[in-house]
Design a protein that fits this description.
- This protein is α+β, with helices and mostly antiparallel strands.
- It has one domain.
- The chain has a 4-stranded antiparallel sheet with strand order 1-2-3-4, with no helix packed on it.
- The termini are far apart.
Amino acid sequence: MEGAAPQGDNIDSIVLEEEIDPNYVPSENEVIEYAKWLGMDLESDQDLYWIAREGLMAPLPNNWKPCKTKDTEDIYYFNFATGESTWDHPCDGYYKRLYEEEKKKKETQMKVAFFSKSLLIMSSNV
């Protein structure tokens, strides 16, 4: 959705202001839905739900504003410095990459632990 800027006389969108509630805590359902969207396995990745929780509370980066289309009232995000627009929150990509990195770390740690345990068992059988 490149360049769908809310500008000029023929305004198709309404620029909204981001309202941050300092007391907002995402519900468990919100965390689960976002975790799914990030690609998490809901059973094996519960220890990584902190990423989903953090992502749900992330403020918009500088120059980004939420906008609402007049016809469908869908929300999208517009960067007033670059003209870029997106349907997804601008921080979503960061949290998706963070999840992938943390998942890889976890898998590596599990492999190392398994290998270490296997070596320990093998050495005790000698």
